[in-house]
Design a protein that fits this description.
Largest sheet: 10 strands, mixed
Number of helices: 10
Number of strands: 19
Distance between the termini: 61 Å
Length: 400
């Protein structure tokens, strides 16, 4: 196969005429491309949008992130599983939020755990989580294809007996909904309000206890990651999580010092059909507001900006983002397939962060309202903790 350059997908599919004999798993793209491999994790079939993630660590946290609902994640790092899985690295903040990624693709077979924190093997965790996996795939070629042609809708299967009904998988992939226009947050947001009590993770014991006093922050839950809640508590806030579809009048009745619009899956414009009224109500009431990822996009929609579907999105733990206010470059985690159209931001919005990969908007603040927003995941710490200060700044303003 010819060398694949950074911006060039292979001219000929490396999977053309690849025999299915011996395969117990496969990925079938909407265009009919068949990628055989070895099945792992949960048995069965799943459909979703196929994206790639460049993170070398944190694979359990990635697949447990509710923002990945209805997606199949292809890891570019070849070796998966040596850390195993444990309960402390769970990212779902509610039972419904456990409906996250539906599939996983890797180059190498899943390895046995070799980490003191492991409570079960990664393959066992995938099976218990209902995530269908396929290993032994040329992930480099698949990533190049996604970069060139975009994130395809695909079907993924693990059949331990080796019986792969390719024609049925092609039909499933053809009929599965596209991500654009699809509302997914409603499937993963919590159904009832609750108080969050965990704070930052303290080595080696796990999460500490949140404060019993301090400013009250209400989190509009669209599939919020648990570590966002821990970081808010670690910054000194009392945290109350409410369903993202709660009316603004009920949110304001809680008398919050601040409101966070959380991350979540799907098309922000679709979720915005029921969420924007609440978000606008909070902004108009003058409540300090922070948006994260999907929340960033919906805050933009709430002030009259637009969002656009990205070709291959941003998914990884090593993304450089420039903070235009400080001039510093932060290394951050990202997971999004939609972006805010910077040219559509209104005059009262000031761009604060920008991706150094492609120049897309990664943050803004309003000049006339206490609103700030970031596209990346400031709660993640893939090694650096460059963006933890987002929470300290937000909660610090509430305490002034």
């Amino acid at each position: 196969m010819p060398e694949i350059t950074e911006n060039q997908a292979p001219a000929i599919s490396p999977w053309k005429d690849t025999p299915l004999e011996g395969a117990t798993g496969a990925i079938v793209l909407r265009d009919g491309t068949v990628i055989p491999g070895m099945g792992a994790g949960a048995s069965g079939v799943a459909t979703g949008e196929l994206c790639f993630n460049t993170a070398m660590t944190g694979h359990q946290e990635i697949l447990a992130d509710p923002s990945y609902a209805a997606q199949i994640v292809c890891f570019t790092f070849p070796h998966i599983g040596n850390v195993g899985a444990n309960r402390q690295d769970e990212e779902a903040a509610s039972d419904r939020a456990r409906k996250a990624a539906v599939g996983m693709v890797s180059r190498a077979p899943i390895t046995p755990p070799a980490n003191w924190r492991a409570e079960q093997s990664f393959s066992e965790w995938l099976a218990a989580r209902g995530i269908v996996a396929v290993t032994g795939v040329d992930t480099r070629a698949l990533t190049a294809r996604i970069r060139e042609q975009g994130m395809p809708i695909a079907a993924i299967v693990h059949a331990p007996d080796g019986r792969l009904d390719i024609e049925a998988l092609k039909a499933l992939a053809a009929d599965a909904p596209a991500m654009e226009g699809t509302e997914l947050a409603g499937q993963v947001l919590g159904e009832a309000a609750n108080d969050w009590t965990e704070a930052d993770w303290a080595w080696p014991d796990g999460p500490g206890a949140g404060p019993k006093d301090g400013p009250l922050v209400v989190v509009l839950d669209y599939g919020v990651k648990a570590n966002i809640l821990r970081r808010l508590a670690g910054a000194g806030a009392r945290v109350r999580v409410v369903p993202g579809n709660m009316p603004a009048s009920e949110v304001l009745a809680l008398n919050p010092a601040g409101v966070v619009v959380s991350n979540g899956p799907g098309d922000p414009a679709a979720t915005g059909e029921y969420a924007l009224a609440t978000i606008r109500g909070v902004i108009e009431a003058g409540i300090p507001t922070l948006g994260i990822c999907l929340g960033h996009q919906m805050l933009a929609l709430a002030i009259g900006a637009k969002t656009v579907k990205m070709t291959h999105g941003h998914h990884g733990a090593n993304h450089p983002v420039k903070n235009l206010l400080s001039g510093q470059v932060e290394i951050v985690s990202m997971n999004h397939g939609f972006a805010v159209d910077r040219d559509s931001l209104p005059a009262n919005a000031e761009e604060t962060h920008v991706s150094l990969f492609d120049g897309t908007n990664c943050g803004f603040r309003l000049k006339d309202q206490p609103v700030m927003s970031v596209q990346h995941h400031p709660e993640a710490s893939p090694g650096p903790q460059d963006s933890f200060a987002v929470f300290d700044e937000f909660v610090g303003r509430l305490s002034d």
